[in-house]
Amino acid sequence: MLEVKNARMLYGDLVAVDRLSFTIKPGDIFGLLGTNGAGKTTTFRMIMGLLEPTEGEVLYNGQHVGYHNVNEIGYMIEERSLLTKITVKELMLYFGQLKDMEPRVILERLDYWLDRFGITDYKNKKIKELSKGNQQKIQFISAIINNPKLLVLDEPFSGLDPINTEFFVEVIRDFQRQGAMVVFSSHQLDHVESFCEELIVLEKGKVIIEGRIDQVKKDFKKQNIKIKGDVDVDKLKAIPGVFQVIENVDQIIVKIENDDAASRVFDYVKTCQHITKYDVEQASLSEIFIAKVGQAHEKV
Amino acid sequence: MKKFKFLVKYGLLKRVGRKAFLITNIIIAILSILIINLPSIIALFGGDDDQMTDLTIEVASELGVATLVDDLEVKFNEGLPAPFYLISEIPSNTVDVDQFWENPEVDVLFTFAGTPDDPVINIYSKFPEMNGNFANQIELQLISYQLGGAYERPVFNTILAPDYEDPEAGAILGSISSLLILPLFILVTMATQFVGVDIIEEKSTKAIETIIASVPANIHFLSKIVASIFFVIIQGALILFYGVLASLLSKLFASAPNLNLPVGQESLLGYLGELLPNWPILIIFTMLFIVVGTLFYLVIAAIFASMAVTQEDYQQFQSPLMLMLLGGFYIGIFAPMANGDGFMRVMAFVPIFAPMVAPVALAGGILNYAQAVIALVVMILFLAITVYFLSPVYKVAILNYDQTKFFKRIGDNFKKAFHMRKK
Fold it and tell me: How confident is the model at residue B265 (pLDDT cuts 50, 70, 90)?
């Protein structure tokens, strides 16, 4: 279990992370979101033991994260962190042995992962000769080569095409099934929404959203109603509780403040002709994110 | 410890297991052989144009040994393909030393006084570097006259011309300094470059994040230093080996009769051996200064590299280090030529210059052994203080990607390290 307890990180007067607390249990996938400079990387560095919190603590299975238990952790940083002048094999041997792995085991696992990602031909190629996407795969493999029990992934999908993103998601799910804890950050909120159960959104070091995604959505009262049919947009806009109406090519999206507004919109739509679609959906994570971060900015 | 050993091994193999290392060493070996055998090579290509063809010696003896002059001529020319020493006798009462010094026809004058059992020999020589050889030959000859009696070592007085200036005196220290400092400078520069480039390569690619996530920053720091020191030791030993190899080759050249090399000029090492009779102690001191000095420079290089973010950045950050190294190099090379003994003595105690200045000062007799030990102790203390104060800076700087101006960045990193230490 990973426990971040009231962690606070100060750089001089700057509060990089302010009293952050969360717990990740084996088999959990946890999302850490936020705009640039929100404190995600600082949080990851505290989890990895690279930074000592000014206040609070980070515990991994009840112990402080340190070099005694780091071999059980896999870490992938946001930017590419590969030695570009050496080959894939040399790099894995280097990084793997830093995790106290035997060279034989490293090479066995490397063959497995290269095969799984469909890049077996690149084993003896220099990193700098690989495309950005393949470098990303190699970096991901370097994070999981030690079969970690805690996987810390900072923007793992950055720069990946949808097919390779699916590869990554599959592997992360495999680790989840094996009981590993996964904590990751991403700007691609659809990925967070699709496979992460719990999240925290940071803004300027402070937590602005936290909890299980379904609960977060539920707590966020605003909803979207998608309508196809002959409706008068001006009348929709005039309904109390409707704060925005978007006219798309094939449908109209009505953004409402709460459940009461939903029933008022429904009452109006019932009076309209040729209605082929009427869906009330919870706000997307992206909308919640933008709304909450916007509020946080306004407060500042 | 396992990770530390691995990192040291990895860092070392990265240097010595490469083609560049092999090529560099082939070049160094060839250059060493060429430099050490330079006199022979010059001689081989006709460099003996101004070589002496004979040496005229006059002997004035009161020993009463009738065959002395003939015996000496045989003894002196023993083993030479043609007579080189032309020895003639002059009456003792005709000896005029002033006239001898002015006479270009005569090169050396021996005067023998006393008895064969208790002789006193004056050697007046226009080639004082050969006096040792003259004395040895004379002594051997006189022993043969003393058979049956107890051996008494003759008394030798060597007298130089009043206006004599040893043409080699200034060159001696210059030779020593070049031969000591140049390899040292090359070794230290190579090692600091390696450690700096290694660190900045890992930092600029952000691979350092993954590495420091697996090993503590201080272990990473120490492993880089230790790997580089091992590299210096290996490379230093190889250079020494090339020197020995070159020396053996020079002996081989000298023993090859068809090469017809001039006697006594076959090897630069032989020449240095004559100049520095205390060379074993000198080598030990030099090695100690190299190791401690290189450690110091490596620590500085590692710290600067940790504060740099990009390769270009590092070029700027390593300038102070290169200035330090060049300072030591130029002091070591030029101070002896400028007769700056006092200046050298002072600089030998300044830790940032001592690694290159102190061995030369010791070889040149400017420092005695006690002073060299003090200089070494000062350096070790300075190194310990440097490591104590700068290793926290490395810990702070290695994961810091701040790209503010040079001095501000240094200041910020020191401040953070200071806060960390306080905490």
Answer: very low
- Our CA dihedral for A123, A126, A131, A132, rounded to 10 degrees, sits at 100
Which residues are CB-contacts of B256 (< 8 A; sequence separation ≥ 6)?
A: none
Considering Cα of B109, then B112, then B116, then B118, what sign does the dihedral take? negative
Distance CA B120, CA A298 (A): 107
Is pLDDT of B263 > 50? no
Q: What angle do CA A49, A52, A56 make, to 5 degrees?
A: 110
Measured in angstroms, the CA of B2 and the nearest CA of chain A are apart by 8
CA distance B36 to B250: 8
Paired tokens of B166: 């040893």
- Residues 6 or more apart whose CB falls under 8 angstroms from that of B41 comprise B34, B47
Q: pLDDT tens digits, residue range B94-126?
A: 888 888 888 888 889 999 988 877 888 999 988
Question: A55 CB near a chain B CB, below 8 Å?
Answer: no
Report which of residues B258 and A85 the model is more confident about: A85
Phi, psi of A191 (to 5 degrees): -70, -40
Tell me: the pLDDT tens digits for A230-279? 888 898 888 888 888 888 888 899 888 877 888 888 888 888 888 888 88
* Among A residues 87-106, those touching chain B with beta carbons less than 8 Å apart: 94-95, 97-100
β-strands A2-11, A14-24 pairing? antiparallel
Q: Across the interface, which of B205, B215, B399 has its CB nearest the CB of A98?
A: B215
Range with lowest mean pLDDT among A164-173, A219-228, A290-299 = A290-299
Instruction: Specify the pLDDT at position B293.
Output: 87
Secondary structure element (H or E) that encloses residue A205, with its range: none
What single string gives the DSSP state of each residue in B330-358? Answer: HHHHHHHHTT-HHHHHHHTTSTTTHHHHH
Report how far apart the first and last C-alpha atoms of chain B are (Å, whole number): 26
Check whether A209 has a pLDDT greater than 70: yes
Identify the three-state secondary structure at position A149: coil
Q: Which residues of A touch B2 (CB under 8 A)?
A: 100
